[in-house]
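Dear colleagues,

I hope this message finds you well. In preparation for our joint manuscript, I am sending the Diphosphomevalonate decarboxylase (Cinchona calisaya) sequence together with its predicted structure, so that both groups work from identical material. I would be grateful if you could confirm receipt.
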Amino acid sequence: MAEQKSSWVLMVTAQTPTNIAVIKYWGKRDETLILPINDSISVTLDPSHLCTTTTVAVSPQFTHDRMWLNAKEISLSGGRYQNCLREIRSRASDVEDEKKGIKIAKEDWDNLHFHIASYNNFPTAAGLASSAAGFACLVYSLAKLMNVKEDSGQLSAIARQGSGSACRSLYGGFVKWIMGKDDKGADSIAVQLVDENHWDELVILIAVVSSRQKETSSTSGMRETVETSPLVLHRAKEVVPKRVIEMEEAIKSRDFPAFARLTCSDSNQFHAVCLDTSPPIFYMNDTSHRIISCVEKWNRSEGTPQVAYTFDAGPNAVLIARNRKTAALLLQRLLFYFPPQSDADLSSYIVGDKSILKDAG
Ligand code: ADP
Ligand code: DP6
Ligand code: CO
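The corresponding structure tokens are as follows:
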């Protein structure tokens, strides 16, 4: 390494929001490269609500790569972390910090190590896509630190190798993860469908039913589904391709009734496929089911959908209201039927996107 003191530390901090799928990814065709069996579509949440903050530091004094998640050291030996680190390292460029007198040549990166500290401001491994925000932030912050010049599509293909859903968190707005055809995954990347301003009357509200860590991780859950569910291939081959086309259309034309119908159906089919797994996987609980009934009843009584619901691999509800007025009514209803800290176990509400709480005054 060029004539510099060995005491320097170079750091980058980044923040990445989580994303919630409205057409779900569930099932891989390649476990190592993380290649999915169907396309998926998600909405990225406002970073001021649910996000990961990651600081990556490099110093000649660090003897090996280390990572702390929510202040606890975790092992980086897993293939996913190693794959992301290797892919990013191989694309590193020269870095120069004149103020600190630091010069790192492209080839020096192979001999340097990282210390990484990451913090999720929302429950980890509870079905709110912490792996999505987490790996997207890891890849993004390392890419910044190492002056990687790839575009977001290429970075999304690296984040995908950390956690599939992570590839969609590198963009705001509505995002599609194209499953791709290539065996090596070169074309399995995320693209932005529309940006965050396109449909800005939508309000996303998250009802945290339980912040406990789920019993079956998404990774093992979807593996068991692919191995045992007779329904999952029908979903991936027959149902999702049509839904993806209809969902893109609904998003582009801001057609809320179509959007809500597709979002709710896809969430329900994803949980049906979990139930079709042997042994069955139950991600939702009684409170989740009661929230679904409550929204379905409301939508029916209005004659046209006011709210869409979707549940990832966990019991927590993601509710998408068509506008701020509906969101205010929704929050009122939730607080009435599921008062926080009651037996219903609905512990808190996180209002995402255009925050109705912040703007209420
Ligand atoms: P979730 O529904 O929260 O995405 P998953 O089972 O898909 O749950 O993934 C949880 C795993 O993702 C964690 O056990 C951890 O390995 C990884 N993860 C979560 N947050 C981060 C983070 N900030 N940085 C790196 N990895 C993370
Ligand atoms: C239900 O991306 O967490 O949230 O690729 O194994 O890390 P791995 O799984 P992950 O699965 C997400 C599943 C989902 C649906 C979705 O986000 O599309
Ligand atoms: Co996940």
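For the figure legend, we might mention the following. The mean pLDDT is 91. The longest helix spans residues 232-252.

With kind regards,
E.M.
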